[in-house]
Specification:
The chain is of the alpha+beta class. The chain is built from six helices and nine strands. Helix 4 packs antiparallel against helix 5.
Length: 185
C-alpha cells in the first residue's frame, strides 16, 4: 500500500513494502541521505533543534558545508545502515526530524507494487511530487549555501543560535522563492 499525504511542510510518502524491503534488511537506509541545509532549517522550525544538537553531540550527525551527514552504524543482519534505523522497526525518529528524502522518497518497486494494487493515481501523484521536489530542494539548498557560510556554518561549531539563524535564513529564502520544496502539494 502506498500513501502520499500532502500537507505542506509535513508531506509524507509511506509504503507497506518498506517493512519487508526486497532490497535487504535495511533497504534505503543502508546509504542514508544527508540533511541538506533546508532540511536542517526545516527540522529546527518543526521543533527539532534539541534533537539535532543532541545527535551532533552523540556523533550521529556530522556538520559539513552542505548540511549534516548521517552516521552509518553496523547492526546485525542489516550491516552498516543509518544510525536512526532499527532492524525490524525501520526509522526510529519522527518524520518531522528526518531529511526530506526520507519523508518523500520511495523506490520504484514500491511505486510499481502500488500500481499493481490499483493505486495508479497515488503512484502518479507520488512520481510527480518527486520530480518536482528534487530540483526544487537542490535549488533551495544551493541558495542557502552562501548565506550559511556567512553565518559560519559549520566552521564555527553548530549551536542553537546558529541553527536558529539558519532557520531564519531558510524562511527569508523561501519567501523569495515562488514555491518551497517542502510545500509540495
Amino acid at each position: 500500500m502506498l500513501r502520499l499525504t500532502l500537507a505542506g511542510l509535513d508531506t509524507l510518502t509511506t509504503s507497506s513494502l518498506c517493512r519487508s524491503c526486497p532490497y535487504g534488511p535495511s533497504g534505503c537506509c543502508v546509504a542514508p541521505p544527508r540533511y541538506g541545509l533546508a532540511d536542517v532549517a526545516w527540522v529546527v522550525r518543526s521543533g527539532g533543534k534539541a534533537f539535532l544538537l543532541d545527535a551532533i553531540g552523540r556523533g550521529d550527525l556530522t556538520p559539513m558545508a552542505e548540511g549534516l551527514a548521517i552516521t552509518r552504524r553496523v547492526r546485525g543482519e542489516a550491516g552498516a545502515s543509518c544510525t536512526f534505523f532499527a532492524e525490524g522497526e525501520g526509522c526510529t525518529i519522527a518524520h518531522t526530524l528526518r531529511p526530506t528524502t526520507c519523508n518523500h522518497y520511495v523506490c520504484d518497486r514500491a511505486l510499481e507494487d502500488a500500481e499493481i494494487e490499483g493505486l495508479v493515481d497515488e503512484a502518479a501523484r507520488t512520481r510527480t511530487m518527486l520530480e518536482r521536489l528534487v530540483p526544487e530542494l537542490a535549488g533551495l539548498d544551493a541558495a542557502l549555501v552562501e548565506g550559511a557560510k556567512r553565518l559560519g556554518f559549520p566552521g564555527c561549531g553548530v549551536d542553537g543560535a546558529l541553527l536558529d539563524a539558519l532557520a531564519e535564513l531558510f524562511e527569508a529564502t523561501r519567501s523569495t522563492s515562488a514555491r518551497s520544496p517542502h510545500d509540495v502539494g
